[in-house]
Design a protein that fits this description.
The protein is mainly beta. It has one helix at 2-20, and strands at residues 25-42, 47-49, 52-68, 71-92, 95-120, 123-143, 159-160, 174-186, 190-199, 210-225. InterPro entries: Autotransporte_beta_dom_sf, Beta-barrel_OMP_2.
Length: 226
């Protein structure tokens, strides 16, 4: 009898602890749209007019949430598409290099955010930040369809982006940076948030006409946490 009582007590205790830890680890999905652009620094010997303008992007992925009190550690894997419109005229001595169109780049990103949760009636607000790393999958340059006559450009055809470290590459394959996320999670698991990705890596291969190129995005997403 004592053995049965002891086993029953241990079983009840284990069930209680398991119930208390039900939300210790959660999983979720999210997807959204963003405004994206390439932040570029021209070389010292060139002048660039209207170099880069923002484009539209989108992203989708899954995440895990390791919850301890009001804090959550949230690693994720995200498919990210970003674009940047190029309407540049590069002046270097007597040479004028013109390029009109849009870059579209695709990445796999792995962010890890530390999130602070603020419970309120109906859900909770949350704010977080952390680093991310990214790998380029593919990309393409598409020329502008409304290019004016007389604005001859060597980039008047669509071509695939080349990723690597040699002189024939357009961008480096590896990216890293920091992101900030803020939003609201309803009690039913539905989430809405804003996220800002700040690329810190210089993905420029050479130093002409740009010394540095970094990725940027600001988006809004919907998600669901199971």
């Amino acid at each position: 009898m004592k053995l049965h009582l002891t086993l029953s007590s241990l079983l009840l205790l284990a069930c209680f602890k398991l119930s208390a830890q039900t939300n210790a680890i959660q999983f979720g999905i999210r997807a959204g749209v963003s405004g994206t652009w390439l932040s570029r620094t021209p070389g010292t010997d060139v002048q660039i007019r209207d170099a880069e303008k923002s484009g539209s992007g989108y992203f989708a992925g899954a995440f895990a949430s390791f919850n301890v009190n009001r804090f959550s550690l949230q690693p994720a894997i995200i498919f990210n598409s970003l674009s940047s419109k190029t309407t540049e005229e590069v002046l270097s001595g007597d040479i004028v290099y013109r390029m009109y169109g849009k870059w579209r780049l695709y990445y796999i990103q792995v962010p890890v955010n530390l999130v602070y949760n603020i419970p309120v009636h109906g859900g909770k607000f949350y704010l977080g930040a952390g680093p991310y790393i990214g790998w380029a999958l593919s990309g393409r340059f598409t020329p502008a369809s409304n290019e004016s006559p007389g604005q001859s450009s060597p980039a008047n055809f669509s071509f695939k982006a080349k990723f690597g470290s040699d002189d024939r590459s357009n961008f480096k394959s590896f990216d890293y940076g920091a992101n900030v996320v803020a939003g609201f999670e309803f009690d039913n698991g539905l989430m809405i948030n804003a996220v800002h990705d700040l690329g810190l890596a210089n993905i420029e291969v050479g130093n002409y006409p740009y010394e540095k190129t970094r990725t940027r995005s600001l988006g809004i997403a919907l998600g669901y946490k199971f």
